[in-house]
Amino acid sequence: MQVDVVMPKMGESIQEGKILRWLKQPGDKIAKDETILEISTDKVDSEIPSPSSGVLTKIIVPEGETVEVGTVIATVDTDENAAVAAPSTEAPPKVQPQAPPPAAVSTPAKQKPVAGPPGETRFYSPLVRTIAQKEGIGMAELDSIPGSGNGGRLRKTDLMAYLKTRGAQGPAGVAPVAADFGIQSVDMAEIQKKYPAPRYQVRQMDNVQKKMAEHMVKSVHTSPHVGAISECDLSRIVSFRTTAAAQFEKTQGFKLTYTPFVFDATVRALKEYPLVNSSIEGDKVVIKNFINLGMAVASPTGLIVPVIKNAEEKNFLGLARAINDIAVRTRNKKLMPDEIMGGTFSITNYGVFGNIIGTPIISQPQVAILGIGAITKRPVVVTDEAGSDAIAIRSMCYLTLSFDHRIIDGALGGQFLEAIVKNLEAFDFEGIA
Question: What are the residues whose beta carbons fall under 8 Å from the beta carbon of 427, sequence distance 6 or more?
Fold first, then answer.
């Protein structure tokens, strides 16, 4: 029996994916859930498992091609003696969407087909609709944009190309187009000629790197960044971790790091200063009554910021488990794109590389990000209960807060950062190990 392998839907906002690498070739035997290819989306690179056991008989879409969600990209025959098909040159067929069950008939308005030219119906994906709304494109203007998708469907790339040529002001009554933060594509041959080998090495940015670059440029353009730095005495936490690490790993199955201590302290500070857990929409401030913590993780394809959802509902052990799980899956390319979306506050730990101070860039649309420096022993002045000063060796760490000065002033930023310091220095270890 032939089983189709289709480009999976990796998240609500993901409409297409790029095939990076086929790990199996026609004729290879494969097991169900065995990884057969790697794909890249706007958000993250992922490994895709086989839908069934059998033989990979046909690769329809080659490496480097980008196709829409639902496109058949390969076939698997569950009969292990199946014949292998010759390479296909035909256009990849599209999987027809199935009708929703009766209980799910009430489709949100933004996902319904909208009227196009007379006698035709045109579908706009939620992503295209969101971009159009943000850029002030009305339905009549949207209908006039030619699409390169199946049946003339308007894709994100079509809309973004249109925006670049639309003009700074656009049609009458339409809001100005936002600044273009895209990374310009340059011909590889020309660049290699300008920077010849062996003195130079030219490397192509991958999809994730380009998206990260665009995101960072947009953030610096959007938010007036201000930084505050505090030093924190982590001697109590260092001593506790040294004592409890072995027992913690034995009972929990993973190593006790300093990260969950910082996350726990940050969650409590965000509850105390909720304005830091917000975003800005025009002249409105949206305060989030939930805490989704973004955690910067170095992955094989670059820096990725997966999100721990509803962190305010987790105790220390819950945070530690979530941090370990998401870090392991990020490094193994097991993240889903939705898991790096929806963050309300982010934390980056450049201290793991030995850096003591950094100035991180805010992850839009958040309004602040915390940076954690390396923990180092150094002499500091300490005061005992009697008020006497002395010099002692302590485990110290610099914490940096980058914040959006449109909504967070120096007083709030400083108070919030000091709240994290206080929570760390007076950490309650009960129930951890």
Answer: 236, 237, 240, 261, 264, 265
Cβ distance 52 to 68 under 8 Å?
no
405 as an active site residue: the answer is yes
Q: What is the dihedral of CA 256, 261, 263, 264, to 10 degrees?
A: 120
Quote the CATH superfamily of domain 224-425.
Answer: Chloramphenicol acetyltransferase-like domain (3.30.559.10)
Is residue 345 a contact partner of residue 291, using CB atoms and an 8 Å limit? Answer: yes
Instruction: Give me the catalytic one of 79, 180, 221, 405.
Output: 405
DSSP state for residue 166 in the 8-state scheme: S
User: Considering only CA atoms, which of 413, 432, 52, 77 is closest in space to residue 241?
Assistant: 432
- How many Å apart are CA 52 and CA 265, to the nearest integer? 45
Kindly indicate the confidence band of residue 411, based on its pLDDT and cuts at 50, 70 and 90: very high
Write the CA distances from 247 to 240, 242, 256, integer angstroms.
12, 10, 9
Query: Over the stretch 148-185, which tens digit does the pLDDT of each residue have?
Result: 765 567 877 778 878 877 653 444 344 444 456 767 88
Task: Return the domain boundaries, the chain.
Answer: 2-77, 102-165, 224-425
Q: Give the C-alpha separation, 343 to 262, whole Å.
A: 17
Cα dihedral 186, 187, 189, 190 sign: negative
- From the list 268, 49, 18, the residue with the least C-alpha distance to 156 is 18
Beta partners for residue 396, in sequence order? 233, 376
Q: Is 225 a catalytic residue?
A: no
- Statement: 2-77 belongs to CATH 1.10.10.10: no
Instruction: Report cis status (omega within 30 of 0) of the bond before 365.
Output: yes
Written as one letter, the residue type at 44 is V
pTM of the model: 0.67
CB 131 within 8 A of CB 141: no
Residue of 206, 213, 154, 223 lying closest to 181 (CA atoms): 213
Catalytic residue among 33, 79, 180, 409: 409
Q: What is the pLDDT of residues 230-265, one digit of tens each?
A: 999 999 999 999 999 999 999 999 999 999 999 999
Q: How many angstroms separate the Cα of 329 from the Cα of each of 22, 332, 338?
A: 20, 5, 13
Tens digit of each residue's pLDDT (9 = 90 or more) over 267-316: 999 999 999 999 999 999 999 999 999 998 877 666 788 999 999 999 99
